[in-house]
Write a structure and sequence with these properties.
single chain, 290 residues, alpha+beta, 4-stranded antiparallel β-sheet, 3-stranded antiparallel β-sheet, 7 helices, 17 strands
């Protein structure tokens, strides 16, 4: 990767571009060429401008421009961005209208999912998983239950008119900016603990298998009594193996839904099956599909 530098010390943009054109001429660009400059110009602060120089072009600089006071390397800071697409919320029209008119939104829960009678929305296995940890010599199995402290909004990464029939609904709205939308919902969650979101993981069954090569039985023994296991250590190992998959795991029969799930965790106890919140500010990140 080529290094980049900033040549500073220009009092205004005009002076920076004047030197920039001199560099272009010295580089061999003809005076009548449509290309007048070869370097990017930057405003460094209110009365200082600079030119961005690639290391291949350092030979064009005068010696007095190569001193540390004038020339500094630009640190390489690669960006890492996660992509969250627009997502679609399928609902009965009365609930969509209520959201866009009054800002009212209902968030459900895994407990509520268990109670749905129809095949598309009901999933009695929601939140339950078999976790398998593969150690270098031993393996372990654990049945887990997760996500029962969260309010959930299920959306889809796919807009497909067949979904209307699948869910038995007649309306839909798109969340165009999911990050901003979720931030607004946070403000309305009582005793808010944290948030998780992402696409669901579809598999033949609810088994999560992960390699843990450092796992051995001695690592979970109690320090006070080597003949027993330390429960905190056991839960830590199970969490290592399960990760967040336990919140997003679904079987292949639901894969056509392309679910993108949002979970707002709370300290509420007991946990209600659903909550109705008023979030008018969230509407500006959404659009009703006609």
């Amino acid at each position: 990767m080529k290094k980049r530098y900033i040549l500073n010390g220009f009092p205004n943009r005009e002076e920076a571009q004047k030197r920039n054109q001199e560099f272009a001429l010295n580089y061999g660009i003809k005076p009548d060429s449509t290309t007048k400059y070869i370097f990017k110009v930057h405003c460094l602060q209110r009365e200082e401008w600079g030119l961005e120089i690639l290391e291949d072009h350092l030979n064009l600089l005068d010696e007095n421009e190569k001193i540390p006071e004038r020339l500094r390397e630009i640190p390489n800071n690669p960006f890492v961005n996660s992509y969250v697409p627009m997502v679609f919320r399928y609902l009965e029209s009365k609930w969509v209208d209520d959201f866009f008119k009054n800002g009212k939104l209902r968030l459900s829960s895994f407990k509520k999912f268990h109670q749905h009678q129809d095949e598309q929305r009901g999933d009695k296995k929601e939140g339950s998983n078999l976790v398998v940890g593969l150690g270098s010599e031993k393996q372990f199995f654990a049945m887990t239950g997760n996500g029962y402290d969260a309010f959930v909004l299920s959306t889809s990464m796919s807009y497909n008119e067949k979904m209307y029939d699948d869910f038995g609904i007649d309306s839909c709205f798109v969340i165009e900016k999911p990050h901003e939308f979720m931030d607004e919902i946070i403000r309305a969650i009582p005793e808010f603990k944290g948030i998780n979101f992402g696409p669901c993981l579809y598999q033949p069954d609810k088994t999560i298998t992960r390699q843990l090569p450092d796992f051995n039985l001695d690592s979970i023994k109690s320090e006070d009594n080597p003949d027993t296991n330390d429960m905190d250590k056991m839960f830590h190992v199970i969490n290592q193996a399960s990760g967040l998959d336990v919140l997003f795991s679904k079987t292949n029969e639901y894969s056509h839904q392309h679910e993108f799930r949002m979970l707002w965790h709370t300290y509420l106890d007991p946990m209600p099956e659903h909550i109705d919140i008023i979030v008018p500010e969230a509407r500006k990140f959404c659009r009703k599909i006609k």
